[in-house]
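Reply to dn_fold:

You asked what the input looked like. This is it:
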Amino acid sequence: MEPIPFEFIDSLKQCFGRCFYYKDTLVSFLVTCGLEHKLASKYKGEYKFVWAEKLLGELNETEEGRLRIKRIITGFNQLRKLPDAQVADKDAGLSALRHLKELITKNESVVANQKRETISRYKISQEKEKLIQQRASKLESVRNAFYAGFSCPNRQEAGFSLEDIIKDLFALSNIEYKKSYKTETQQIDGHFRFEGFDYLVEAKWRKDLPNESEIGSFQRKVNTKLESTRGLFLSVNDFRDEVVKQFNGKSNIIFFTGEDLTLILEGRIELTEVLVKKIERAAQYGDSLVKVKDLLKTEGAK
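and this is what came back:
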């Protein structure tokens, strides 16, 4: 099978970048086109146009990959409207989609099996909508549970609910998460593994902000584990700037705030992307706390 023509690849890049607002929606779309979730989200940390270039370039190198590109083309051809209503420039998105469909019409050989797969494509389209709706519904449920915690008079109960909220959020990103457990001498709020590293979690939902001693105590918990272990400290009510500075460039802990969590639960950005960006900043600049709102400003400038 010959490589997919450049004009199709270029048109697909435009559709990646202009037809979607949320990266999570784009991943769901690719999954319904037949890509494994791991492959669909492989370059999710990149800008959407770069994501498309890397993914399509990789797929176009093999015969199996080219078949997958054809399925993506077919998936776009089935769309009757933009997948994300939040797309800023809807005209540009519709124009990109229209251009791809015109290419398909002029080059029937690229999608020669399209008629034979009409029923199959319809099912894929329906499944895609179902997956998107199911995930949106689950995310809304987790978000509502988080919002309810702010008015809960029993702060211990709110703290327990936070454990479930974190676990459910990680599950939506296909990251296995272990809730609170005890060792012989320590209480651990949670654990997960991400990109080859183990992370211990400390989660606080109190009126007072965590002090240097509390974070230092968590740091010692992390340091008693294998060398590849890191920490994630979540304080719903934020951190004091002077406390954060005490750990910049000196620890293996990344900080999350309640505002970070809110923006993720609102679907503004994917959890895995936040983890990648926070880890990158901590590794490259020693910043223990990078706020999601600043990441979104950077993303919006793209």
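The chain has two domains: 6-134, 155-300.
Hope that clears it up.
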